[in-house]
Amino acid sequence: MATPNIPLWEVFIRSRNGLAHKHVGSLHATDATLALQAARDIYTRRGEGLSIWVVPSNAITASDPSEKGMMFEPAESKIYRHPTFYDVPEEVGHM
Amino acid sequence: MYTQALNSSEGEDRPLEDAERAAQFQARIDAEERIEPNDWMPAAYRKTLTRQISQHAHSEIVGMLPEGNWITRAPSLRRKAALLAKVQDECGHGLYLYAAAETLGSSREELVDLMLAGKAKYSSIFNYPTLTWADIGTIGWLVDGAAIMNQIPLCRCSYGPYARAMIRVCKEESFHQRQGFEIMLMLCRGTAEQKAMAQDALNRWWWPVLMMFGPPDQASQHSDTSTRWKIKRFSNDELRQKFVDATVPQAQFLGLTIPDPGMKQNENGNWEYSAIDWDEFKQVLAGNGPCNRERLAARRKAHEDGAWVREAAMAYAEKRKQRAALQAAE
């Protein structure tokens, strides 16, 4: 008999206070409580974190890599959004 | 984001792949870009990686067995704690790798079932027995040492999830090798009997460890395309030579003799080893090694004995979901 599929979760860990939670990987668990415990055992055996988030993988909506041009190209031409676009005379000093 | 559903059915059954897409794909590889799960990839790339990553995962899981054999008999609490932590790491490595393999579209359950059915391979090395405590030292020193040699280049593999899993694995693997070497050092500095035990373990593990790097370059069936796709960065023989060159001085430091009387150092400083018995390797891969049957039987038993836990956890989650739905309706 084939082994039944157990839901997939994505794991996010905050490594230090003041930092954002960062995606570290995924795991299988039947519910959120078990997912948190499994995340602790799999991803924080060496003090990697202070806080864990687990999110059901199917709750994540991802952008389509084949449409990354449409998504991200509009920003590429807008160099005036960066501070280096603007000239400040040297005499003015650091701004 | 790495769900199976996003990666379904592409490739395999398509008769002709878009040549233009394949060329674009190779151009990305050549430019050292990383390929991510939902990017287009040739079916053969997906297949090769699924095979390699899942075999790698199975190896980590089966690799827990020879060492687990010694947890209750470790000679001190310090050794026992370290061995427990190491075996737990191997389990973690297996899980990172199954997760990486799943991003290619096969579920962990399917992959595990293939292994349990004897249809998927795992590293030949884990089909050898751990007869004495010195075997635990030798496994850490040589088997994990060889694994590190093999895995460091995989941290730069073209497939993103595999490369990221390998970075984590390599960080943790270094403790494994060092604790193994420390066990060997203690034995070699101990009584004559302890030193003899260390030498005996080295004698039994040396050749199987060299075989871990896979068949010689002229006979390796997967190397060419894997190199072109930058899954593989060094050939089997190159890695094997690097390992031998790194290991010989360590054995000398321990005062142990490598069981290869014909071994000599050439003018480039490389240690030339004698011919490897590839028939033994083929036999072990074909299922006829000293422990193949025992390993598979142990994995099957663990899987079957755990079935009620999986079922209970699923039933509990289902019950909670239904209760929540009822409460919401009230």
From TrEMBL, chain A:
The keyword Oxidoreductase applies. Keywords: Oxidoreductase. It is an enzyme of class 1 (oxidoreductase). The keyword Iron does not apply. Its EC number is 1.14.13.149. This is 1,2-phenylacetyl-CoA epoxidase subunit B. It comes from the Bacteria.
